[in-house]
Amino acid sequence: MSNFQIYPAIDLRGGKCVRLFQGDYGQETVYGDSPVEMAVKFVEAGAQWLHMVDLDGAKDGRRINNEIVIEAAKLNVNVQVGGGIR
Q: What pTM was estimated for this model as a whole?
């Protein structure tokens, strides 16, 4: 029996939860207006980890969605962050 951990992912762009089609910033789908509310739903469903990607930060080369990531981290969940980190 193997043991593995699922990391629900929240991609951040413009303060919203999005998915890009094949990494194309011109082709995004918005899945939620509040990344923190989405994080709450994942935590309530039993998530111990969240994977958050600052797509604005990845594009601009600097952290942009810090406040959202910090608020999610206050939810008693481990947060793995990517995008805009140099």
A: 0.87
